[in-house]
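Sequence, structure tokens quoted for completeness.
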Amino acid sequence: METSSGQGKQSATVVSMDTTTEQPKPTKTSLYLPPKANHKLKEIALSKGCKVHDLLIAGVDHVLTSEGFKPVSEYSEK
């Protein structure tokens, strides 16, 4: 590569290759609950030392497994 005279310059492009596999993001959904039901879920979560989300996932797991499907954790790609 000549660089001093400015003639015969060659340009090179550096391309980084991402070798990590991107995992799909979880789907977001909304759940509309009566305020009293939401309050009760918060009370239960507080007494169990977990989040309301954890209780909801447990409920989804219950429905899936009772219908013969795998629990939510089995659908996560690792």
Remarks:
- Residues 52-66 form the longest helix (15 residues).
- DSSP finds two helices and no strands in the chain.
